[in-house]
Each structure stands twice: as C-alpha cells, then as structure tokens.
Amino acid sequence: MCTRYITPEQAAIERFWHIGARNPPQWWAHDMFPAYAGPFLRAARDAVTPGRELVVGQWALIPWFAKERKLKYPTCNARSEELAQKASYKHPWARGQRCIIPAAAFFEPCWETGRHVPWRFTRADGAPWGLAGLWNTWTDPATGELVESYTMLTLNADAHPLMARMHKPDPKRPAQLQDKRSVVPIEPEDVDTWLHAPLEQAAQLVRLAPAELFVAEPVSG
Q1: Of 167, 164, 143, 149, which Cα lies nearest the Cα of 214?
Q2: Where does residue 126 fall: left (phi above 0), alpha (psi -120 to 50 degrees), or beta otherwise?
Q3: How do the domains of the chain map onto residue ranges?
Q4: CA–CA dist 183, 44 (Å, integer)
Q5: Could you read off the pLDDT of 74-127 as tens digits, one per residue?
Q6: Quick one: three-class SS letters along the chain?
C-alpha cells in the first residue's frame, strides 16, 4: 500500500507524456499524501481523436454513492484483484476510467530491522513513474460541485524479490501469503493502451515491474 509519493513539476509531466503546453498553470502538492490534490492523466474527453489530458483531483477516489467528500474508509489504493467486485471501483473500472499517476518517486515502509524505515523508490533509467490508477468525477449533492478524484492500483507482490521486502509482516500468515502490495507502473509505450484500449486489453498491463527497474534505498523521515 502506497501512501506517499512525489509529483513532478507540471512542465516535466507535459513534456514526458506529450500532452502539450497549452494547459493552464495548476497547483498541487509535490509531497503527496492521501486526500491531497494531485495530478493525473486520463483520456481526453472532448477530443475528436484519442488524446490525453492533465487533471488535478483528490488522491482518494470518491465513489458515485458517497454522500460527502470525506470518506470513512481509505480509497487512495485499490487492489487490482478486486476492481470488478468492489463497489467503490467496479463502475470506473468497467467504464474504462483509467489514469496515469505521475510520480518522481514513491515511498514504502521496510520492517526488516524490526522498525518502520521508509524506502524511496525511483526508476533506474531516471524517468518518472507512470503509475496505474482509476479516476472518478463525483457530484457533491449539497453544492452541485464536480469533484475529480483518483486511486492508485496495487498488486500482490509476495513473490517479488524487492517489493515483498516492504511493509510490516503479519506473524499469523506464512511468508508466501503475506499479501505484500506493489504499485503498478505503466511503461511509456503502453500509456495509450492503458488509457484508450478495451478493458480486456488494458487489464493485461496490470502486472509487477521487474526488480531491475527500481532504485530503492532507505531514507530518513
């Protein structure tokens, strides 16, 4: 489960994901935590041909049935294995409301020393991460305001040589059934497939990245 990441600058996002520079300047927190406003990329909704648009929304997806913006349960991460069943995510998943979450780095806790030590994950090639997510537009029933939001997909990583080392182990579970989680990177050449392709084709991109793609190191704070 990822609950902190670093966003790139707007110009870097526009340049790397080829979404043009005509977007109005937007503000977001660069050290991101759940419920903060952050950027994501989705299929352009008003374009004649398939395109991409940069959107700022809340990192914690607000489902269509929510009565208020602040939820009593976390929706910053979504288990990929449960997308088709979970009430909060099944409609965005079925409708193809997939997005890319730009991240210069993300953080996960390692407990191998017996205490919480945050680790920072960047890409070995120096590029930003494009993490798989889902988005939704929610209408506030009290005010009529349209609120954009998104969630970050995760995948079981019990067999991953690096990501299985993260998170606090559950002593009641065997090593192969810990349900350690990993984010799901989408490679640049797969972005349009993720954003525009039919569900069955896009679902094939929900997979773990090889350990060689990561640069992982403990950090203080």
Answers
A1: 164
A2: left
A3: 5-218
A4: 24
A5: 999 999 999 999 999 999 999 999 999 999 999 999 999 999 999 999 999 999
A6: CCCCEECCCHHHHHHHCCCCCCCCCCCCCCEECCCCEEEEEEECCCCCCCCEEEEEEEECCCCCCCCCCCCCCCCCEEEHHHCCCCCCCHHHHHCCCEEEEEECEEEEEECCCCCCEEEEEEECCCCCEEEEEEEEEEECCCCCCEEEEEEEEEEECCCCCCHHHECCCCCCCCHHHCCCEEECECCHHHHHHHHHCCHHHHHCCCCCCCHHHEEEEECCC
pTM above the 0.85 mark?
Answer: yes
Strand partners, 118: 109
Tell me the pLDDT tens digit for each residue of 8-41. Answer: 999 999 999 998 766 677 889 999 999 999 999 9
- Hey, what are 151's tokens? 């969630």
Count other Cβ atoms within 10 Å, centred on residue 205.
Answer: 17
Q: Residue 77's closest CA among 158, 182, 208, 195?
A: 182
Domain 5-218 = CATH 3.90.1680.10: yes
Tell me how far apart the alpha carbons of residues 152 and 170 are, in angstroms, rounded to a whole number. 23
Cα(40)–Cα(186) distance, integer angstroms: 13
Residue for token pair 């009641």: 172
**Residue partners of 164: CB distance under 8 A and separation at least 6:** 157, 158, 178, 180
